[in-house]
Amino acid sequence: MMPLAPPAREAAASNRCRLSRPAPLQATRLVLNEHSIGVFDSGMGGLSVLRSLRDALPHEDFIYIADSGHAPYGERPDSYVVARARAITGYLTQHHHIKALVIACNTATAAAIEQLRQDHPGLPIIGVEPGLKPAAKASTTHRIGVLATRSTLASAKYATLLASLQGQAEFVTQACDGLALAIEHQDTPKIIALCAHYISQMGPFGTKPGQVDTLVLGCTHYAFAEHHLRALVGPEVHILDTGGPIARRAHQLLASQLSDRQSKGHCRFETSGSTALLQAAVQRWLQLPGPIAALRELT
To answer: What sign results for the dihedral spanned by CA atoms 223, 226, 232, 234?
Structure first.
């Protein structure tokens, strides 16, 4: 990663995947607390987690990285995702001096969280995983649907989680190729078509025996398609995402480090993709004006 610290560190970092300094902001530059909370995702899906984090930790400052120029992670090899996660985490710790990190991406959590904890042993790191455990508790038919990326479903972390719930419920899994990218591009017709296709592959939904009565959203992007999914599965089916549980975990883990100020915290957004798309998503889903900075890659 390109160091954003004194030149003496350059040699030690020269063999890492590198990110450049963000381009100057076009809007008024925010002054964040010295130690903000870092959040990153392969793109915009992690905004659903950030929304829950801001509700649970209203006085904290956040720095959000959307790695949209390299999305979707769910269709990338693990080695690629790990390299991106290490580069972004190094950037956040060196340049923004974060006090905690939230990996707001199921794929990145599965592929990279253990490596990141080894790299940064003093940094609290919180990941996300499909909500299979709360789904098993909520289901009465004991038949649960799981929508996720292909990488998440193929990961060892997911296999371990699934094995821990053996005998408690039947899990019907569905890899949703293309859905995260359609949400990333805010392509509503494609989102609707893909949701309909994947839901149709999972069998009947409802509360009768043999029906799927609980649907787990195993990718943070999918929370932004929830209303389309609701129209397909009906009003009685539980739909579970990970934003709330992650926010509660962050509050618990950071209880002794929370800001004591009374004013609302600020958010800064940076992206390796389109600033205009991220700006639109932030305004639409978080009702925030930004500002948005470009995170440019070195060749």
So the answer is: positive
Of 197, 189, 186, 155, whose CA–CA distance to 276 is shortest? 186
> Reading across the β-sheet that carries 143-148, which strands appear in turn?
170-175, 143-148, 214-217, 238-240
Query: In whole angstroms, what is the distance from residue 299 CA to residue 243 CA?
Result: 35
What does the alpha-carbon distance between residue 204 and residue 285 come to, in Å, rounded to a whole number? 30
pTM of the model: 0.82
- Residue 5 scores a pLDDT above 90: no
Residue 31: give the domain boundaries: 16-127+244-297
pLDDT in tens, 17-66: 334 333 333 333 444 445 899 999 999 999 999 999 999 999 999 999 99
Instruction: Look up the CATH number of the domain holding residue 208.
Output: 3.40.50.1860
3-class state of residue 72 by DSSP: coil
The verdict on 154 and 285 lying in the same domain is no
Enumerate residues 6+ apart whose C-beta is below 8 A from 6. none
**How big, in percent rounded to 5, are the helix, strand and coil portions of the chain?**
45, 15, 35
CA separation for the pair 97, 170 (Å, rounded):
43
Burial of residue 267 (number of CB atoms within 10 Å: 0-12, 13-18, 19+)? buried
> Catalytic site residues?
105, 219
